[in-house]
Design goal:
Keywords: Coiled coil, DNA-binding, Isomerase, Topoisomerase
Largest sheet: 4 strands, mixed
Enzyme class: isomerase
Structural class: alpha+beta
Domain DNA topoisomerase I eukaryotic-type: 185-546
Organism: Salarias fasciatus (Jewelled blenny)
Catalytic activity: ATP-independent breakage of single-stranded DNA, followed by passage and rejoining
Strand content: 5-15%
DNA sequence: CTCAATACTTAGAACGCATGAC
DNA sequence: GTCATGCGTTCTAAGTATTGAG
């Protein structure tokens, strides 16, 4: 079947040949640009190493911790961890059993033998004074004078200047995360079984440095040494360490606007592959409608994480089959937690064949069993790339997002002459929103949402009152004008009419704003904008609509998409 | 090939600062 | 000037992709 797919695909259209040709041209261009052999990411790399967070400052003598009502002076190590907990006391995490249990277990490990003997019940711990001290500190920071704030800013800038940049192949590049992650209590997303565990302080002895052999090797902090210094130019990271919660490796890497990222495989390149999918997506869709039978294998087990799934790892409890639902036949109801424990809920009508297959896959299984027990992401992507070179699930996502944006922009925006910039931007946001909904990019409603919505509503109400008052005045003025017919009175009518119109306009604007905000309550636009939408679509739209590109991309985004802003013409089509 | 380790991208929340309304 | 609010930045968790060992 893969062979046949490829043949069909190759013969179907001239435009495919064209796009294939284009891909090769881009490949060559990219080759030219990168100028290094495969797998080599740089020839020269020099940096100052990561920035370490400041050492723990023990509590002042007048701040106390109490156990069972009695004052206890904690050892520095135990005290530091106690402060982590105290700082989070306002957060609801600290009320959760898993969080508390994990915290307490790890905390006890930091205690001295004596402390461990004494402190056996978290419920008997009183962190009140530590908590109060933390809040006072936050408050004090907020109330700093202008000069103090300025001094702090300058100090931070000094750190950025020293540690925030590296030299990569003769270019000074901004580092994305040059700071070692400070210690604290782990906060996973969703019901994470490890929430509350102690994330330990990283020492230079834990850190591997990666740089050029011939570069100036970064100095470890005084009295310390690095775990290792290596010179591996097949990777892009500058430093790494292993964190203690999941045992995962953390990396110090470059900023998103660096050459390495912008010309890396992920950015421009992914959009070209996705564009190519446009020319053969119909074939591929027809094909998978034909062979609705896949048979592969595999399972996997990892260290405990929050219970989340993706399309390949769905379990049978995540879908419900409805032969009939409302007025539709063969409906699949999805309900599961995806990445970041974000819920996906949807009812999707499918064709009979798919419905029957799903039913078959669920047979003789029980809760906890995988729906597609012979499928995994590797297998899926292998199959996809046999349909079109470079095709993966992610390419589909990029394609779907970009094509949706383009369609929505066409549907939602009028000609450039028809509307004001604000209205154009609203349309752009709506198109962006449609994409975010498609990709299930959700956010928690902002904490201040209800309040700010109420504030806006109050403004709207006030404006409404104002409007009716203005209308009333207009009516009065008209009556006056009719009975008297003086020029002055007529002028007054005109003035009142203008006032009513202005009022109406402002009211409309606010109402639109309220709608926009309400619609955006649980939708996050940033992720799709940054990661899935071909920036050339947006740049072309700006050119066509005569909207400055600054209105849709901020500085950071303009840096990241500089290549698209430079090269895109108004007639660009995804 | 499989599995685990490693590398890199994607993600939402928290933070903090600029801005604009009053 | 004050204050809320929205926005950009920072942070780091949580995915996917790739590599490499056996």
């Amino acid at each position: 079947a893969p062979g046949r797919d490829f043949t069909i695909q190759r013969l179907t259209s001239v435009s495919q040949l064209m796009s294939f040709f284009f891909i090769i041209m881009v490949l060559l261009a990219r080759w030219e640009e990168e100028k290094y052999e495969d797998g080599v990411k740089w020839k020269f790399l020099e940096h100052n190493g990561p920035y370490f967070p400041p050492e723990y400052q023990p509590l002042p003598d007048d701040v106390h911790f109490y156990y069972n009502g009695k004052e206890v002076k904690l050892s520095p190590a135990a005290e530091e961890v106690a402060v982590f907990f105290a700082q989070m006391l306002d957060h609801e995490y600290t009320t959760k059993k898993v969080f508390r249990d994990n915290f307490f277990k790890d905390w006890r490990e930091e205690m001295t033998h004596e402390e461990r003997l004494l402190i056996k019940d978290l419920g008997k711990c009183d962190f009140g004074e530590l908590h109060a001290m933390h809040k006072a500190k936050v408050e004090a920071r907020k109330n700093m004078t202008k000069e103090e704030k300025q001094a702090l800013k300058e100090a931070n800038q000094k750190i950025v200047d020293e540690y925030g940049y590296c030299l990569l192949d003769h270019h000074r590049e901004r580092i994305g995360n040059f700071k070692i992650e400070p210690p604290g209590l782990f906060r996973g997303r969703g019901e994470h079984p490890k929430q509350g565990m102690l994330k330990k302080r990283i020492q230079p002895e834990d850190v591997i440095i990666n740089c050029s052999k011939e570069s100036r090797i970064p100095e470890p902090p005084a009295g310390h040494r690095w775990k290792e210094v290596r010179h591996d130019n097949s990777v892009t990271w500058l430093a790494s360490w292993t964190e203690n919660i999941q045992g995962a490796i953390k990396y110090i890497m470059l900023n998103a606007n660096s050459k390495l990222k912008v010309s890396g495989p992920a950015s421009r390149w992914q959009y070209e592959v996705a564009r190519k999918l446009k020319s053969c997506v119909d074939d591929i869709r027809n094909q998978y409608m034909k062979d609705l039978h896949s048979r592969e294998m595999e399972k996997r087990q990892k260290t405990p994480t929050a219970d989340t799934v993706g399309c390949c790892s769905l379990r049978i409890e995540h879908i419900t089959l409805h032969k009939q639902l409302d007025d539709k036949e063969f409906v699949v109801e999805f309900d599961f937690l995806g990445k970041d424990s974000i819920r996906y809920y949807n009812k999707v009508p499918v064709i009979k064949k798919v419905f029957k297959n799903l039913k078959l896959f669920m047979e003789n299984k029980e809760t906890g069993d995988e729906l597609f027990d012979r499928l995994n992401t590797g297998r899926l992507n292998k199959h996809l790339s046999s349909l079109m070179p470079g095709l993966t699930a992610k390419v589909f996502r990029t394609y779907n997002a970009s094509i949706t944006l383009q369609q929505q922009l066409r549907e939602l925006t009028n000609s450039k002459l028809d509307s004001a910039t604000a209205e154009k931007l609203l349309s752009y946001n709506r198109a962006n929103r449609a994409v975010a909904v498609l990709c299930n990019h959700q956010r928690a409603p902002p904490k201040t949402f209800e309040q700010s919505m109420a504030n806006l509503q109050a403004k709207i109400d006030a404006r409404k009152d104002q409007l009716s008052a203005a209308k009333e005045e207009l009516k009065e003025a008209k009556k006056e004008a009719k009975s008297k017919g003086e020029a002055d009175a007529k002028l007054l009518v005109e003035r009142k009419q203008a006032a009513v119109a202005r009022c109406k306009e402002q009211l409309l604007k606010m109402e639109v704003q309220a709608t926009d905000r309400e619609e955006n309550k649980q939708i996050a636009l940033g992720t799709s904008k940054l990661n899935y939408l071909d920036p050339r679509i947006s740049v072309a739209w700006c050119k066509n609509m005569e909207v400055p590109v600054e209105k849709i991309y901020n500085k950071t985004q303009r840096d990241k998409f500089a290549w698209a802003i430079d090269m895109t013409e108004a007639d660009f089509e995804f």
